[in-house]
Amino acid sequence: MTRDSKTPAPGGSPRLLTPSRRTFLKRSAAVGGMTMLAGAGVGEAMAAGDDNLPPNVPEWMKTLGSSVTAHPYGMPSQYEKNVIRRNVGWLTATEESSINFTPIHELDGIITPNGVCFERHHGGAPDIDPDQHRLMIHGLVDRPLIFTMSDLMRFPSVSRIHFIECPANGGMEWKGAQMDGVQFSHGMVHCCEWTGVKLSTLLAEVGLQKSAKWLLAEGADAAAMTRSIPLDKALDDVIVCYSQNGERIRVENGYPLRLLVPGWEGNVNVKWLRRIKVGDQPWHHREETSKYTDLMPNGIARQFTFVQEANSVITSPCPEKPMKFGKGFYEIRGLAWSGHGRIKKVDISTDGGNNWHTADLQTPVLSRALTRFRFPLQWDGRPMLLQSRAMDESGYVQPTIEALRAVRGLNSIYHKNSIHTWRVKPDGEVENVQIA
Ligand SMILES: Nc1nc2c(c(=O)[nH]1)N[C@H]1C(S)=C(S)[C@@H](COP(=O)(O)O)O[C@H]1N2
Ligand SMILES: [Mo]
User: Fold this and answer.
1) Rounded distance, CA 190 to CA 366, Å?
2) Coiled-coil stretches, from where to where (predicted)?
3) Which of residues 302, 333, 349 is at a domain's end?
4) Closest-approaching ligand to the CA atom of 224
5) Which domain holds residue 340?
6) Which candidate among 11, 111, 262, 426 keeps its CA 20 to 30 Å from the CA of 44?
7) Per-residue pLDDT tens for 414-434?
8) pTM score, two decimals?
9) Protein residues whose CB sits closer than 6 Å to any atom of ligand 1
10) How far apart, in whole angstroms, are the C-alpha atoms of residue 214 and residue 277?
């Protein structure tokens, strides 16, 4: 039954369903009465070349498998070779100053595996010897200090699960839909468990002077990327990280040390962190003047728009994952996140935003982390305009594209977090569209 429905859909909306055991059982397979949506009967499963299917014994049961020394560092199954980061050739002039995208449509839950976390570099990923890496903290401090990696690892540590999102995520679509897939429309985001030392701990070690108000964080890459960060945020929840999902940070995500600035635009999460300077005002470097600003319709650019506001997207179905089983049951799946804190609610529409239904949120719902939502749908085979709309604990609601454009105009690149629309066609194919 529909839940949280406001008004009847003009022309009728696809039927929504709260799954019951009965519905699932309808097309169960003939094997042991197990519940399945479209399982094959025993007879049907036997076709030519299906030697590995029941009732035969598959070939992998007839010989020993690989030894415990075969894979000292494990890799995904060879059958998962399409679950990879991908880049878009035309997007950037070089492949060093460039970006690739997380295959979010292939992932479950909320944690992004290290090998498929999107990468954004301005000068390529440096190969840093941790023994020759240092973090220097200087400027308006009582005791300027240089830390080795082992110094940093001796401090009290914390682990936190947070997303990092490039503010350019979705930025190619201010003027209209153009990315052919959710990997490219929304894949500049990942969510990992980050471990390190709180920046406040290190700042206490060096001793802040009274006039301290801003920090400059610098990376040890060829771009020497620098960003100004206000001291309140630095003292609140910023972490100087050395681990990502339990192991040392991957080279491409900042090995051996990166800054994690929870909920704030990816760019300030400086990778390959080598220096923090304490000052009394921002530095106005390249990445906070010519880039990572929001050009408003009146020609004035907003600067230091740090927070990644609430966003969400349906990751299944999507152009890469069409509804290819015809009418029937589908679980709509997706991700929501907010730089302001926890996701409070995600609504789903199948009719382009006329009616909204509340999705289930996978718990625990963590602050400034990806949140998995799910919604059961009984598809009647008619076209749909599928949307998700996130609301966070601050009460902020993800805007429509018109509402966002009304304020921001069309000159922006960054911080496009509008409600996304997938058009589902009767054949189940899914198209990226924008609707007025
Ligand atoms: N030193 C350094 N830090 C950097 C960058 C960079 O090019 N150099 N890119 C930034 C940008 S624009 C983003 S979106 C995030 C991306 O983090 P990731 O590569 O781990 O996904 O790193 C940020 N930190
Ligand atoms: Mo970025």
Assistant:
1) 14
2) none
3) 302
4) 1
5) 311-433
6) 426
7) 999 999 999 999 999 999 999
8) 0.91
9) 117-122, 164, 166, 190, 219, 221, 223, 225, 253-254, 266-267, 269-272
10) 8
